[in-house]
Every structure is written in C-alpha cells, then in structure tokens.
Amino acid sequence: MSSRRERELTERLVQLSCILAEEDEEVPDIPDNACETWTEADVREYYRSKGAYTPEGEFAQGLVGQEVPGGSLEQNRKLRWSDPMDDIGTPPLDAAAYQEAAFEHGIPCRPDGLFPPSDPTLERLTKDPLFKPFEKQLVDKRDKLVSAENSWASGNSAAANSRIDLRCFLYVGGETSDGSSVGSRLEGAVRFGDNASIGNGFSAHGGAVETVLDEATAELCKATQGVMCYTTQADFKLKQPVALHKTYAIEAEITKLGIRGMRIFVDARLKDDQGNEAAVCSVQLANVAKISSRS
C-alpha cells in the first residue's frame, strides 16, 4: 500500500472516530494507535460496544491465518484495502466538480436495465428541465471523476442479473429559499429484480430497499456538498412490502446542516405509483473535507 493511501486511510479513521465520539461521549477514548492499525469496521464496533471491543481481544482465540478459508480477519486487517488503486491522488472535493462530471456523463445505456419502455416515472423526470439525470461518480487513477463500475447499488452492474436498477435526477431549479443548500433535493426511480428479493420470488429484501435509500441520500450530498461525504448514521422504516418488477419513486432532501457543514441531515422516502410511502429514512452524513479543513 502506498504511503499516501495509508495516510489518507488513517486520517479518515481519525475523523470517523471523532464523529462517533461526539455521538456517545460515554465511550472511553479510542487507543492512541488504533486508527493506524484498525479497520473502519473495528472503529465502528469499538464505539458500538461502548469501548468493550478490541481486535486483539476479539481474535485472541480460535482459528488464525490460513486455517480460516480466505484468511482470518486479523490477517486480512493487514491488507486494510483490497482496492488496487493505491496511487490515487487527491480528488476534486467540491460539489461543482462532481456535478460537472455527473451531468456530462448522464446515465449511460444499461444493457441489463429493468425498466420497460415509456415508464411514466422515468418519462416525467426526463421531460422536466429542472431535473438532471446522473450516475454515481468515483475518482480513477488519473484523479478524474468517472461513472462507477462494478457497484453494488449503482449503474448497469447493479441492474445485472435482475437485481437493482436505480436512476437518480438532481434538482437544479436554483438556490433554496434561505440561500444555503438546505432544501436541495434529488428524485429518482428504481425497480427491483428477482435477485433483490427475499427469495423465491417474494418481495424485495429489506436490505435492498435500504441500499437504494442510502445510495440516493449519499449521491444528493456528494452532488451538493462535495465528493467526500460518508454515511455515519441511518434510521430506516419499512412500511409495506416492496414488489419486484414495479417502479417506485425516490425522493431525498437535505433538511439540516451541522456547524460549518460538517454534518448533513437528509430525509428520503420510497413511494409506490399511488404515492404511498413504502419506506422512509433519516440519514446523517459527514463531510470529511469540511472536517479536515477545521483541523
């Protein structure tokens, strides 16, 4: 792993630990070298367990090394990232760069898409000039924003094998009423295929429904707040079964910004074709770029 990537990961875990510490002040301070040697999952588990968890204690007994198929967690922790793009540079952090790339790319053709021709929800959003279609953007080896490939929740790879086809549109109708980005919103359409189901053709799995709401809220924040926005807390409520091979509308809106925009609060909902809410969520995200600029 390159030293640059190592530093970026350590900095991200330090910022995450600060956010989690603010959320629960009763948890003891994380060990001094934890962010240099732990994974993100370790840091989150430490705070979830109120400080009772440590990787060493968790894996002190039992199978180790190659005795565990695929390697043990302790062994894999040394890798920390499976992403081969270790030489990635500093990405453009502002929302303007994200929007420029996202709107230029739009939503590329999806050979494995799940929407039928002339879908009413997609047609409405496509014809509305105040909504711009876009797809998730990530930074490549050249430090350029490109449409995501091989994503669990976005693009053709998510729709392949009849799973999830999510299409997002950002509202570009001008400044919000108070001149800030509070009130910024995203709308979209989604269909769930057979392999997003609970199994054997039953309704969509709750995890699949939560995935699309999480993805939509994150993309809204990246497009309006900056590239380095990460979900830190989410509260989902599943209100009714979500059918397979049926179009649902997604609506997401930024409701509040924390001090200096370091935290972003977003509400989102999934609606059926009658306007009934099938699922809702309230999400908090951290804008890591704003947190970094504070230090």
CATH 4th-level superfamily of the largest domain: Hotdog Thioesterase
Q: How many structural domains are formed by the residues?
A: 2
Radius of gyration, whole Å: 20 Å
Number of strands: 9
Binned, the helix content reads 25-40%
The main β sheet shows up as:
7 strands, antiparallel
Secondary-structure class: alpha+beta
- For the record, the CATH class of the largest domain is Alpha Beta
Rough outline: globular
Reported CATH architecture of the largest domain: Roll
**What is the H-and-E element order?**
HHHHHHHEEEHEEHEEEEH
Low-confidence stretches: 58-90
CATH topology annotation of the largest domain: Thiol Ester Dehydrase, Chain A
Protein name: Thioesterase domain-containing protein
InterPro entries: HotDog_dom_sf
